[in-house]
Design a protein that fits this description.
Elements lengths: L4 H14 L8 H10 L12 E9 L4 E7 L4 E3 L2 E3 L7 H13 L6 E3 L6 E7 L10 E12 L11 E8 L8 H9 L2
Length: 182
C-alpha cells in the first residue's frame, strides 16, 4: 500500500511532539500536506513533496555521505518515495540500499521515527519537465558495521565516510553527533 497523507501527517505530528521548536520551519510542509493530500508523495507535486533520507552511522562515529550527480552536492543517501514503499522508514531504507549497495540486512534502524525533517529548495530541471519545488526530507538514522559501498552510478558519483563533526548543516550535524555518544 503506497504511503498516504495520513501516514505523513502522523509521522510529522509525532516528530513535532518531540521537536516543537521546529513547527514554524515545517509550516510549509503542513500547508502543502493539507492542500495536496495523498499527492504529497508524488514527484509531480511542485508545491513540494515528501522524500526520504538515511543517515548511516558506523560504530567509529562516521556517517556515510554521497555526491549527488544531478545536484553536484554531498548529501545523505535518499530520494523520492515510490508507490511500492509502505512507510517513510521503508523508503529511506530502500533509497539507502539503491544508492549505496548496502543491503537492508546490514543496517539497523535507530528508531521508527525520523531524527530530522528537512525542508529545502530544489531547482527547476527543464530536461525532466520539473519546476522549482521543495523537498520535505524525512531523515532516518540507521546503524551499521558495513563499510563496503557499491554506488548507483546513474545518481551518485562518489561516497565518503565522514566524522559527524564534519557535517556542516544544522541540526543534522548536532543530531548525528549526539547519536555517536554512548
Amino acid at each position: 500500500m503506497p504511503i498516504t497523507a495520513q501516514h505523513v501527517r502522523e509521522t510529522l505530528d509525532t516528530y513535532l511532539a518531540s521537536h516543537p521548536d521546529e513547527k514554524d520551519s515545517l509550516s510549509a510542509l503542513a500547508q502543502v500536506l493539507d492542500e495536496a493530500g495523498d499527492s504529497i508523495t508524488s514527484r509531480k507535486e511542485f508545491r513540494g513533496h515528501v522524500t526520504a533520507g538515511a543517515a548511516l552511522l558506523r560504530p567509529d562515529g562516521r556517517v556515510l555521505t554521497i555526491e549527488h550527480r544531478a545536484l553536484k552536492k554531498w548529501l545523505l543517501p535518499g530520494g523520492h518515495v515510490e508507490a511500492s514503499d509502505t512507510s517513510l522508514l521503508d523508503a529511506a531504507l530502500r533509497e539507502l540500499a539503491e544508492e549505496t549497495g548496502i543491503s537492508p540486512d546490514q543496517v539497523e534502524p535507530d528508531s521508527g521515527l525520523p531524527f530530522q525533517i528537512d525542508a529545502h529548495p530544489i531547482p527547476a530541471n527543464p530536461a525532466k519537465g520539473e519546476d522549482a519545488h521543495q523537498h520535505f526530507d524525512f531523515r532516518y538514522l540507521f546503524r551499521t558495521t558495513a563499510d563496503t559501498v557499491e554506488l548507483q552510478e546513474e545518481e551518485v558519483t562518489a561516497y565518503s565516510w565522514q566524522f559527524a563533526d564534519m557535517l556542516t548543516a544544522e541540526p543534522l550535524r548536532s543530531r548525528v553527533m549526539a547519536a555517536t555518544r554512548p
